[in-house]
Amino acid sequence: MRILLSNDDGVFAPGLAVLEEIARSVTDDVWIAAPQEEQSGQARAITLNAPVRVREEGEKRFAVAGTPSDAVLLGVLDIMKDNPPDLVLSGVNRGQNIAEDTSQSGTVAAAIEGMHLGIPSIAFSQGRNFRRGQPIPWDTARTWGPRVLKGLLEAGWPKNVVINVNFPDRLPEDVSGIEVTRQGFRDQHLNHLDKRQDLRGTDYFWIGYSGQLSQPPEGTDLRAIYEGDLGDAAAYRHDAPQIP
């Protein structure tokens, strides 16, 4: 099996190193085509009005000066054109991609691009900020990722479905299990504007998120992550496979 890895946090992101470990649990034929710099929140953007450059960073590792979708597109249609990948994996994102996040996420977009190119694709994200002041528990993705990946490959899923996997913000031993979920929606928006002034008195803004928990129903990705399950949701479709 040949696997192409990408992400939206950049080619040198720690989550991509974790994803490589997950991929190597099933094959040694692992390729990387990821954005040169962080591209969080770029969703499915494609670069149309500027050249997209590719730089080789090592054996089977390429940095793309573009979006996550650009990276997967170049990875499949150019870098690996003579022998395309059997699977596209995106992540592991620094932060959960659940509910409305999926429409803005570059991580999920990279997987969608793979699916549109006819390749089974999975997005992986590691939850954070639920344990205030604690570091991101990358070991949770590192520990549970191979099990989830092997289960999904064994079960299979429809060609027009992207699998979105979220690891909760808990230590590996505190994760309560794996749950197949549907996409939820928060009962309040998290968008936050921080308005400031520069030294010339001109307004500018930082756009970010404020951390508020909603009251999601059972069976949603939101509830699974809140309760410490691995939430595996199919983007735009809710017929994801059962994982052994």
Explain what the structure shows.
The protein has helices at 14-23, 68-79, 101-104, 106-116, 138-155, 221-227; strands spanning 2-6, 29-35, 54-58, 61-64, 87-94, 121-126, 162-167, 177-181, 191-197, 203-209, 229-235. With 244 residues, the protein is α/β, with parallel strands linked by helices. The chain has one domain (2-187, 215-235): Survival protein SurE-like phosphatase/nucleotidase (Stationary-phase Survival Protein Sure Homolog, Chain: A). A nine-stranded mixed sheet has the order 3-4-2-1-5-6-7-11-8, with helices on both faces. Helix 5 links the parallel strand 6 and strand 7. The longest helix is centred in the middle third of the chain and has 18 residues, at 138-155. The protein is globular, with a radius of gyration of 18 Å.
Compute the number of helices.
6
Order of helices and strands: EHEEEHEHHEHEEEEHE
Overall tally of domains: 1
Structural class: alpha/beta
**Oligomerization category of the chains in this entry:** single chain
The first-level CATH class is given as Alpha Beta
Helix content: 25-40%
CATH homologous superfamily (4th level) name: Survival protein SurE-like phosphatase/nucleotidase
Beta-strand content bin: 25-35%
Low-confidence sequence ranges? 233-244
**CATH architectural type:** 3-Layer(aba) Sandwich
Strand order of the largest sheet: 3-4-2-1-5-6-7-11-8
What is the rounded Rg? 18 Å
Whole-number mean pLDDT: 86
End-to-end distance, in Å? 20 Å
Number of strands: 11
Main sheet properties? 9 strands, mixed
| CATH fold-level topology | Stationary-phase Survival Protein Sure Homolog, Chain: A
| Global outline | globular
